[in-house]
Amino acid sequence: MRRALAVAALAAPLWLHAAPFAGVVTHVSDGDSLWIRPLAGGEPVEVRLQGIDAPEICQPHGREARAALAALALHRQVTVRPRARDRYDRVLARVGLDGQDLGGWMVEHGHAWSDGWRGSGGPYARQQAQAAGTRLGLWRSAGALEPRTFRKRHGSCHR
């Protein structure tokens, strides 16, 4: 047991310091998850955009968020800066396309929330405030429900 914990403790920081890589977006699952095939070769990697939370695919604006991310990034070359792995074993990363941060773009255009916690507005709080103020994307509808609240009330879309 101790050995397993030691190995896990040593392995976790590797993702925090993993080298950025270039790849091509092969699939967009939803507004904050995509698959990227590394240019260096190998199988596509599932990546979740760090710092945002897009609507669930079955909630209002979920399909629009996925379509927006796909229109922007599908079949395009991106740069991935891994930060960690999430509980679903996806790579959490900042992803860039032509110098644009995809997570920031999604929030700025009203397709996702800045993922804040403990009173923080998250990394894209300014972009979220602007999108909400101009009623872009998911902010067009009154009562836009954050995905974590949606999941608590309605469960997962993937039951």
Automatic annotation (TrEMBL):
Name of this protein: Thermonuclease family protein
InterPro entries for this protein: SNase_OB-fold_sf (IPR035437), Staphylococal_nuclease_OB-fold (IPR016071)
PANTHER family to which the protein is assigned, alphabetical: BLR1266 PROTEIN, EBNA2 BINDING PROTEIN P100
UniProt KW Signal keyword: yes
Chain segments annotated as coiled-coil in the UniProt record: none
Membrane-spanning segments: none
Signal sequence residues: 1-18
Residue intervals of the TNase-like domain: 19-141
Entry keyword set: Signal
Pfam families assigned to the protein according to its UniProt record, in alphabetical order: SNase
Domain of life: Bacteria
Species for this entry: Ramlibacter lithotrophicus
UniProt keyword NADP, yes or no: no
